[in-house]
Amino acid sequence: MFDLISAFLQCNMLFGEYRHMKLSNYPIRLVIILSSVMIVLLSSNLVLAHSTVPQQSATTQQVINGVQNTTTLETFDTIQAAIDDVDTLDGHTLTVVAGDFNESLLIYKQLTILGANAGVNPNTGTRAGESIIRPPVAIATFADEFSGATIIYPLANNITIDGFTINGDNLNTVAPNGFVLPDGERIDAAYGVFGGGNNITIQDNIFTNISAAGVWLNTPGYGLVTENLFVNLDAPASRGGLTTDDFYADVTNNVFNEVATGWQTDRQANANTNPANPRILIADNDFTVNNMGIFINRHSGASPDYTISNNIIRSDTRTSGNLRGIQLFAIQEGIDIDVNNNIIQGTPTIPFNIGVTVWDIPNANPVTITDLLVDYAAIGIDMYDCNRQFGQSSVLSILILNNAEIRNTSNIGLRVIDNFFGGTPTARLNDNQACSQSGAGGAGLPSSSVSIVAADINFNNNAGLAAIQVTTDPLDPQGANYDPTLIISDTIITGGTTTQQILLDGNGRLELISSFLNGNNNNIIGMTVNSPNNFFRIETSHIYNHRPNNGIVINQTDGDSTVINSCFYNNAFGVQNNSGVTVNATANWWGNVTGPSTTGVDPFRDAVSANVDFAGFLTTQPTVAGV
C-alpha cells in the first residue's frame, strides 16, 4: 500500500502549473484517506492522470539492526520499521548507522532522525561513512523529471533529518531506470524530500542524483534548510530545492553544485505559522547553476518579508541557454524583499544571460538591491513590464538599487524597458493578462511603469550596445503608457567598448545626477539620445575622455532635455545636437575658460553644435574628488 501512496502523491506534479496535495491534516488520517482513495481507484480500474508513474520494486535492505530508537533502545533493519513501531512516539530520536537503506520513508511522527554524519557539514567538515537512503528500483521510465518516486515524505511537525546522503540512484544497472540525467546517470527518484509541517529541519545532508528537486516543502509550515550539499541535480527543469504554498524556510549555508536552478520560492500568500520569524532568509549559500540561481516568485497577501543576502551564484560549465542569477517576479504591495551583498559570477566562456531579472514588483514598498556584483553577463540587470509566460505586470514597479558593480557585460549593463513580445503569439495573447491589451478584442492590461532609482553604481569594461539603456520596445502597439524611468546618481561608468555608455531611446526618461561618464579615451560616445518623446536631465556630472568621439549625441528629442552645472572635457563635441530642437545646456564647464567651441572640433576645449544653448558657461572648472 505504501507504494500506492507514493505514486498517488507524485501524480500530476509539474513545476509552474503543478497540482499538489495539501498535507495539513493529521498524518495518520492522511494515510487512511489516501489508502481508501487508492483502493477505490484500483477497484474501479481507473487510471491516474500520469499513468506512467513507475511502479516500484519491493524494498530491499542491506543493513541488519542498523537503526536504533535511543529512547526504547529497540533496533530495526529499516528506518521505516523504526518509524512504524508502536513504541516509537513523538519526540523520540532514531539513529542510523553507515550503510545503504533502500526505502522510501513516510515520517508521520515528530521525530529526529540522525544519520552517521549528523552534525557534520558536508561542505566544511570531514565525514565518515555515509548513511545512504536510496529509493527502491524504478522498473519503468519516468514520463518526465517530475513523475518519479520520492525518497522521504515529512508529514508531521517537529521533524529533523540530519547527516544522511539522499541518493536517487539505486545502483540498478538493468534498464529501464526512471530517468537519465544529462551526463548519463540513470536514476530512480524525482524528489529527495517532499512534504512539510511546522518546524522541519533538514541539515548536514547530501542530496544527489535526483531529477526534479532535492527538497520540495509545499504545505503550510516553516523550517530550516542549512549546511546541506546539493550536487548533480541538473535535469533541465530541476531545482536544488523550493518552498511553495505557504511553507517558509530559512535556507542558509548550503552548497549547490551542478544544479539547474538553485532555490525557488513560489505561491506564498498566507502568514508564516512561526511568529518568532517574521523575516525569511536565503543567505550565505554557494550556487553553481546552469539555469538560475535564486527565483523569488508570486508572493502576495500576508506572505512574510524576505532577505536574500551573502549568496554567491556561479555559472556551471554547461548552460541552459537562458542562464540567470537572481529572478524577482510578482511581488505584491506590503511584502519587503531586500537583496543585499550577493555576487553573480559568470566567466568569459559561460557568462550569465541576465544577472538580475525584475518583473512585477511593488512601488509603495519597492524591492531593494544593495551591494551587488554582476561579473560576466550579457545583461547585468534587466527590469521590464511584459513577461512572455505570465503577461503584463499588474502594478507600477519600482526597484531601489544601491552600491552595485556591473562589469564585463557583453550587451547591456543595466536596462529599464517597456517591452513587448511581437509576432504571433505574443505574451498570453488571448487572456486578461495579455501585454499592452494585445489580446483578442483588446483583452489584457495596459503597459505599466517600470522605474529604477539607483545610486553608487560602478560600470566597468562593458561591451556591446551600452552600459545603460532606458527604452521602449517599438513593437509595443500602445507605445509607453508609462515611460520607463531611470534616476541614477553618484555613478561611475568607465571605458568599455560599448557603442555608447548610455542609450536613451523609445520613450525613456533619464535623470543623471552627480555621476561620471569616463570614456577612458576608447573612442566611444558618452550618451546617445534617439527618441522624439523622451525626457532627460543631467546635473552636476562629468562627461569626459571620449575623444575622438563625443560626450552627448542627440539625434531626436522633444526639447524636454536639460544638461546643467556639469563638466565636459576631452570630448570632440561635448554636445552634438542633430535633432533641430534646442537643448538647454547652460551653466556647464566646457574644458576652457573661454567656453565651448562653436566652430567645430578644437584641441583645447569641447565643441557644441547648433541648437545648444550654452549660456552662462562656467569659467572655472569645479573641483571633484577623483577627477
Could you characterize the architecture of this molecule?
With 627 residues, the chain is mainly beta. The chain contains three helices and 50 strands. The strands form four sheets. It has a six-stranded parallel β-barrel with strand order 24-26-28-30-29-27. Strands 12-13 form a two-stranded antiparallel ribbon. It has a two-stranded antiparallel sheet with strand order 31-32. Strand 12 (179-180) and strand 13 form a beta hairpin. Helix 1 (2-10) packs across helix 2. Residues 1-60 have low confidence and may be disordered.
Report the sheet-strand fraction: 35-45%
Largest sheet: 6 strands, parallel, barrel
Cα Rg: 29 Å
Strand order of the largest sheet: 24-26-28-30-29-27
The assembly state of the depicted protein chains is single chain
| Distance between the amino and carboxyl termini | 75 Å
* SS elements, strand count: 50
Which stretches of 5+ consecutive residues score pLDDT under 50? 1-60
Mean pLDDT: 86
Shape estimate:
elongated
Number of helices: 3
The class by helix and strand makeup works out as mainly beta
Residue share in helix: under 10%
